[in-house]
Amino acid sequence: MDKRYARNIGMFSEEEMNQLLTKKVCVVGCGGLGGYILEMIARLGVKSITPIDGDVFDETNLNRQLLSDEGSMGFEKALKAKKRINEINSSVEVKPLVDRVDESNGLQILAGHDVIIDAVDNIKTRKMLQDLAEKLDIPLVHGAIAGWYGQVTTIYPGDRTFDLIYPNECENGRGIEAKLGNPSFTPALVASIQVSEAVKVMLGRGKLLRKELLYIDTLNQEYDKIEIGN
């Protein structure tokens, strides 16, 4: 086994580490959540990562987005993700996509992955990802942030968890983060929990946040698990 993964052993068995090295992960969104997710997944070790984002960096990203720096303004986020992953772990195959996932391309883009990680910033796209993941029979790990607060859940095909979290079918904008803002620390925390969920999905180990929403309040340091559905 590659020496770079030596400190993973103990938490993972060698068999689990070898299993992880065969997995393919898709991260939809390379911004606040996505940058941290990509960093952690690349360091853990997987076979392939597909970072997807149709946006470019601007100055408003500098307060929180790990992939952003002053020299990256105007640069495509997905391509910067590839550069960063290559610097961290050149053995990982990176397939960046400078585009947005929609109903016309989603099935083709997302097919073949072992897990999809939601790092988008709007409710409409989250619901679409749930639909696409269900059609492809792929688990989806959701995370969202707003100011001091965050949430994480893992959605398996058929769970329809977003139908309960976001019951308003007409809601197609951003969540409450549009009002509460996004600092540097909340995305890092939520992203780390998403990555732990994704690893458990890939290894079939541990208790998932399935049909449960982990609600995080860092202002009061309160963490609650809310049951969702049956």
UniProtKB/TrEMBL annotation:
Gene3D superfamilies: NAD(P)-binding Rossmann-like Domain. GO terms for biological process: cyclic threonylcarbamoyladenosine biosynthetic process. It holds the Pfam family ThiF. InterPro entries: ThiF/MoeB/HesA (IPR045886), ThiF_NAD_FAD-bd (IPR000594), Ubiquitin-activating_enz (IPR035985). Residues 5-228 form the THIF-type NAD/FAD binding fold domain. Keywords: Nucleotidyltransferase, Transferase. Signal peptide: none annotated. Transmembrane segments: none annotated. One of its GO terms (molecular function) is tRNA threonylcarbamoyladenosine dehydratase. This is Molybdopterin or thiamine biosynthesis adenylyltransferase.
